[in-house]
UniProtKB/TrEMBL annotation:
It holds the Pfam family oligo_HPY. It comes from the Bacteria. PANTHER family: D,D-DIPEPTIDE TRANSPORT ATP-BINDING PROTEIN DDPF-RELATED (PTHR43776:SF7), TRANSPORT ATP-BINDING PROTEIN (PTHR43776). NCBIfam families: oligo_HPY (TIGR01727). Residues 5-248 form the ABC transporter domain. One of its GO terms (molecular function) is ATP binding. This is ABC transporter ATP-binding protein. Keywords: ATP-binding, Nucleotide-binding, Transport. Gene3D superfamilies: P-loop containing nucleotide triphosphate hydrolases. Belongs to the ABC transporter superfamily.
Length: 323
């Protein structure tokens, strides 16, 4: 079964005053229909850039994107608009991402107008339906985003994302700004919407517990690269990459369900301007050897259903280590 969404070897380098920022450096992703792929890593790992590249809100420096078999990377004009209707995004800051001058009716209705799905009385009916599905209602139509709590505002953001009846929703730290008690409610809403509509999610977060709760597959990012990929529970219960182990060890209650505090790994993420050569993690890795400074580890299958980008991972390839 072909994936709904695929990204292959995505690269995004930005020019900045201090040099070239290597924000994303060869990321490949595959999201099956009705499934959730989680993307986890510290801030600065390039997760949000991947989110924007996936929807072509940003143009990649290189790499390919496909959606339901169509070449999303090459699409333009009417074809790109048709594809965009089928993929949406929910941002971290629900208040900041909603226009403060728009009523709820305008904010949730906007995609319906832009994509010419509904207008007039039919538009209002459709918006009420969407609001009711996320736990709000007709009484909220003429209110403004700032009149809602963070959790309610994020429900409005989700209603807006659902308006065009998309197949893929990118959630970029969608619950990170919310109180822990509210996070679970919003996560459960996202899960029930997935079950009911067969949605696919690219679910981005720094919180390992949140990502594990939501994801079928987890990809761990470090400095613009995926360093580990596999079944979500398996990756976080038995991490193989030294960076994943560092993240997991910083969350003592990972074994228990529910959202946790932000991870506090050892040392700082180096700058994506002029990143470390060889393995990008070697400046923080407790197992680094001489070869790690020279050789860039490829993401490779090391055990069943697990890809790891570490020279020392899995069945040891001694040539790679000694060269
Ligand atoms: Fe650590 Fe070397 Fe593996 Fe990189 S390649 S994670 S530095 S052991
Ligand atoms: Mg981010």
């Amino acid at each position: 079964d072909p994936a709904l969404f695929e990204a292959h070897d995505l690269v995004k380098h930005f020019r900045s005053r201090r040099g070239v920022v290597q924000a994303v450096n060869g990321v490949s992703l595959s999201i099956p229909r009705g499934r959730t792929v989680g993307l986890v890593g510290e801030s600065g790992s390039g997760k949000s850039t991947v989110a924007r590249l996936a929807l072509r809100l940003l143009e990649p420096t290189s790499g390919t994107l496909s959606f339901d078999g169509a070449d999303l990377g090459a699409a333009s004009g009417a074809e790109l608009r048709r594809l965009r209707r089928r993929m949406q995004i929910v941002f971290q800051d629900p208040h900041g991402s909603l226009n403060p001058r728009m009523t709820v009716l305008q904010a949730v209705g906007e995609p319906l107008v832009v994509h010419r799905i509904a207008r007039g009385a039919a538009l209002a009916d459709r918006v009420v339906e969407l609001l009711e599905r996320v736990g709000l209602g007709a009484r909220d139509l003429n209110r403004y985003a700032h009149q809602f709590s963070g959790g309610q505002a994020q429900r409005i953001g989700i209603a807006r994302a659902l308006a065009t009846d998309p197949e893929l929703i990118v959630c970029d730290e969608a619950v990170s700004a919310l109180d822990v008690s509210v996070q679970a409610q919003v996560l459960n809403l996202l899960r029930s919407l997935q079950a009911e509509r067969g949605l696919s999610y690219l679910f981005i977060a720094h919180d390992l517990n949140v990502v594990r709760y939501m994801s079928d597959e987890v990809c761990v990012m470090y400095l613009g690269e995926i360093v580990e990929r596999g079944d979500g529970d398996a990756v976080l219960r038995d991490p193989q990459h030294p960076y994943t182990r560092m993240l997991v060890s910083a969350v003592p209650d990972l074994a228990t369900a529910g959202p946790a505090d932000e991870v506090t790994p050892v040392g700082e993420v180096p700058s994506p301007i002029d990143p470390p050569p060889g393995c990008r993690f070697h400046t923080r890795c407790p197992h680094a050897e001489a070869a790690c400074r020279d050789e860039r580890p490829e993401l490779r299958r090391v055990v069943a259903d697990r890809d790891v980008a570490c020279l020392l991972a899995g069945p040891r390839t001694s040539e790679a280590v000694r060269s």
